[in-house]
Amino acid sequence: MPHADRFLSIRRDPFSHELLARGGDPEAHSLLQRTGFVPVARAHEMYHRAPANLAQSEEDRLATKAVARLRSARYHVECDAAFDTDDRPTHYLPLGASVAHLAESIREATTTEEVADALTELTATHDGILAALDDVLVSLAEFHEGLGEAADPHIARRLRYLADERLGVITSDLSHTRNALADRHASHPGRSICTEEVPASEHERSAVCACPPSPRTLPAPPPPPVAATMRR
What we know:
Layout: E1 7-12, E2 19-23, H1 26-35, E3 38-41, E4 46-49, H2 56-72, E5 76-79, H3 96-108, H4 112-123, H5 129-145, H6 152-184
Parallel strand pairs: 1-5
Antiparallel strand pairs: 1-2, 2-4, 3-4
Helix pairs in contact: 1-2, 3-4, 4-6, 5-6
């Protein structure tokens, strides 16, 4: 039986007639957003709605596309008949998966050089991830500067501030960390790789490697005695 988070519903609310998507796990929520839905976080629930001011035909198209993408990713989707489809588009990994791969590389790293290599993808001056993010923020600021509403210049200034001040600090700190690790040339003491080689000085005939013994785990203490209840 699939896990409950693998189930979603995409339907029109019978009272408000809003197009709403409910259920799913974070990956499903990401697919909904990439299809065009807008996330809504409430105190006791998280759901997705269609963007404001769409014609009903556009909402139907949006919902049908979401059903197809979710089912292609092996989610179980209940939907209104108007949104049902047999289309199964190819499910591609998002760009964020590449960054997640860097995190996994750092988790598996055993030396400072390996972590420095992973951080280089973030901090490279010309084509690193942070440099690209800076370019995205500046481009978005330029877009808002000519958009025409009263709040748009303020949004543009805020985006430039994020690029120049907040992102600049993150980039500087991570670059310093990367460079320090590149100069360090050290193995992580808690992540050494077992070579399965027995040193010549080993006296135990049954030894198969030079790894230190695992730390002894003390047994858990017994639960405290339950106090007897008084009888009347």
